[in-house]
Write a structure and sequence with these properties.
Layout (H helix, E strand, L loop, with lengths): L3 E4 L10 H18 L3 E4 L14 H11 L4 E7 L6 H14 L4 E5 L5 H7 L14 H9 L6 H8 L10 H12 L3 E3 L10 E3 L5 H12 L19 E12 L5 E11 L6 E10 L3 H27 L1
Parallel strand pairs: 1-2, 2-3, 3-4
Antiparallel strand pairs: 5-6, 7-8, 8-9
Helix pairs in contact: 1-2, 2-3
Length: 308
């Protein structure tokens, strides 16, 4: 298992200046390299606060290359639809040389209509610049009956390669983060599950991860609206683009949230994934925290009754 830091600037000048964002992100990149993280990743987006502080991930990663020594640098992803492919290839080759061969390239089609409008590019023009033989690829790798159409959108839609995670796998991983790094063997019946060490982090490192995830469900976090009064929740939202749209032209997503509570001594882990919806991971967080709240309140009531 490998760990990386992904950068997705989601604030504009009203929240944070570009200079401050870059200074803080580069400082974090240096810290991640020193702490032994495996990778740094930056997106490409344009024109709005939705990633707009990173119109060129290669420039940001070049700055990271000068502040780091061993960590891998990942484009997650660059968009050929808005860049001449030959020039883009040259830029990435240059970045790979500057970083000493540490570059991993992710490529995507782009999916925001306003970005295509801003560049004066038709969304249909992105197709010839991006691989379209997904069925052939999956048939060859897994066999004709070994995959479903949903795999294409969930795993390969944003240029980051295959994602082998399922809701159950994510729940097991977050269970490891919630304990000593050991994940449980799934069970249908109630009982103490067998646990296997899967996350080789020190207790203080696991505690730091849980603390960082508490910020997601706190003021200013992407799931702030899903907070539970009196309960510390740690979690992470996720939004996977599908390159599909509803009848009104709104983009459809896979909306994720994985979380645990209470954050300082977790008793429950909940993972929610809602496919093909117009809302993002923050809404899935609201569903997950309702489950968490119900579970914890039930447990508290039972404890009081038993001790009384």
């Amino acid at each position: 298992m490998k760990f990386g830091v992904g950068f997705f600037p989601d604030g504009g000048p009203d929240r944070i200046s570009a200079r401050q964002y870059y200074d803080e992100a580069l400082a974090l990149a240096g810290r991640a390299d020193a702490l032994g993280y495996d990778s740094l990743k930056m997106v490409e987006h344009h024109f709005t606060s939705y990633g707009g502080y990173s119109p060129d991930p290669a420039v940001f990663l070049a700055a990271c290359a000068q502040r780091t020594r061993r960590i891998r640098l990942v484009t997650g992803a660059v968009l050929p639809a808005f860049n001449h492919p030959l020039k883009l290839a040259g830029q990435l080759a240059m970045l790979d040389a500057l970083s000493g061969g540490r570059l991993d390239v992710g490529v995507a089609r782009a999916f925001m209509p306003y970005e295509f409008d801003g560049f004066g590019v038709s969304m249909e023009e992105s197709r010839p610049r991006f691989p379209t033989s997904f069925p052939d690829y999956f048939n060859q790798k897994y066999g004709p009956r070994g995959w479903t159409p949903g795999e294409k959108e969930l795993n390969l839609s944003i240029g980051q390669g295959e994602n082998a995670q399922t809701v159950l796998n994510m729940a097991r991983f977050y269970s490891a983060l919630a304990t000593d790094g050991s994940e449980p063997t799934p069970m249908i019946r109630q009982g103490a599950p067998k646990r296997t060490k899967s996350v080789a982090l020190a207790p203080e490192q696991l505690a730091q991860l849980r603390k960082a995830m508490m910020g997601v469900v706190s003021e200013g976090g992407t799931a702030a609206a899903a907070a539970i009064k009196g309960v510390k929740v740690a979690g992470k939202t996720g939004t996977a683009q599908t390159l599909k749209y509803d009848k009104n032209g709104k983009p459809l997503y896979f909306a994720w949230f994985a979380g645990m509570a209470p954050a300082d001594a977790p008793q429950i882990v909940v993972v929610v994934m809602v496919p093909n919806v117009t809302f993002e991971g923050a809404t899935s967080a609201g569903l997950a925290t309702k489950i968490i709240a119900h579970y914890l309140h039930t447990q508290v009531a039972n404890t009081i009754q038993n001790t009384g």
